[in-house]
């Protein structure tokens, strides 16, 4: 994944650029970079931020950089920004996205006179340089950006820093956000809408899918109208988005409260019904009426209803906390923190390439609060289950700390497909997903789209049996996923406006 920030000012912009880019650090942990343009032309600085945060790596650069316009990047992939000189002039470029037809585009570039690529990342051509090569095949930057959106299969949101301002191009289907902020003497453009609030900017303009604008210190000029169809990534609200951000007018933290509330309503079997006054005494245990009760023959371990009496609700820090607060508020079950994440040292645990290192970091960064765990029944909400390794180890860690029961409620449906549009993780195979390993064990190596669709259906027998197998393998007391229809309700946008590919495979 990754994020970026750009600013154009009537004065020096470096401090705004520095802080605005730093506010995207939750989106990546490998590379950071800034490029500025001023009276001495372009300047650029790129650092590895795997072992040190962006802020500490770039503090000295701030003293050396100068300019009234700049762009910055946080990336889990290729180093950026890149400086480009072509027949379109000189510019700096940053991107967020994923190219699925990379080899086709490389060969196309060679056929159209592109001689070579300079940047290699992890043995592959730098995706940002490839994007620039596509742009440069046209006669204007606007035409090049439009052409790029047509040619790239996947998703690509782009900022270009030029002497005339910043060109901003949101990806074709708006899978990632892009917002313009403004104050008296400057404008900025940002992946995260909160990144400019403390810098004195106010919301000015939110780009639509495929829209292109040019941003100057005086404002925004539209260069290409937005497309009608939008497929913004729904996982932004579930996990990746920062709590203070809003996408398409929907705040992340508020959405997560709704998500937890709906999870609780499902467990309570009442969906906000009036016969559970305040839900305060309607613990997950037996509040169903005959009309809403789950049939006895259905597996209680998988459904999570009928039989459990949690003492507390907790979120797996940090992304699960808001979901858990929503659940606790709706159910009346107390919210507590039975473990605390030690944040000064440990980075995101899913980032290291080595699985054993990833597991170790996940274990080391969570410190137990024994008094809130021993002899307690815990209901945990995590943002998602991907490989399952970390949550399984967290559960074992809670049992070892004295927990009596550990009930799990992921805040999204089971992940069945690797992301086709954004670099959310470093997984190389869909078999990294615990769901796909279970389906392979049940169905063999060649699974049809029809069978996968059945496993994605929360009302199917295959789905119920898959969930039960996950529960057994990870040693949860009960397991119940958020349904896709409930997730869409939590977000509050029509399903046709959301990308839900990782859950149901729908393009």
Query: What is the SS-derived class?
Result: alpha+beta
**Corresponding CATH architecture of the largest domain:** 3-Layer(aba) Sandwich
% residues in beta strands: 15-25%
Helix content: 25-40%
Written account of the structure:
The protein is an alpha+beta fold. The protein folds into two domains: 225 residues, 4-Layer Sandwich (Glutamine Phosphoribosylpyrophosphate, subunit 1, domain 1); 254 residues, Rossmann fold (3-Layer(aba) Sandwich), CATH 3.40.50.2020. It has 16 helices and 25 strands. β14 and β15 form a beta hairpin. About 8% of the residues have low confidence.
Task: Summarize it.
The chain is an alpha+beta fold and 507 residues long.
Question: How is the topology of this model organized?
Answer:
Elements: E1 2-9, H1 14-22, E2 31-38, E3 41-48, H2 54-64, E4 69-75, E5 82-86, E6 89-99, H3 102-111, E7 120-121, E8 124-125, H4 127-135, H5 141-151, E9 154-162, E10 165-169, E11 179-183, E12 186-190, E13 202-206, E14 212-216, E15 219-224, E16 232-233, H6 235-240, E17 246-247, E18 250-251, H7 252-268, H8 300-303, E19 312-315, H9 321-331, E20 339-341, H10 355-364, E21 366-368, E22 377-381, H11 389-400, E23 405-408, H12 434-443, H13 449-456, H14 461-474, E24 478-479, H15 484-491, E25 498-499, H16 501-504
Parallel strand pairs: 16-25, 19-22, 22-23, 23-24
Antiparallel strand pairs: 1-4, 1-12, 2-3, 2-4, 5-6, 6-9, 7-8, 9-10, 10-14, 11-12, 11-13, 14-15, 17-18, 20-21
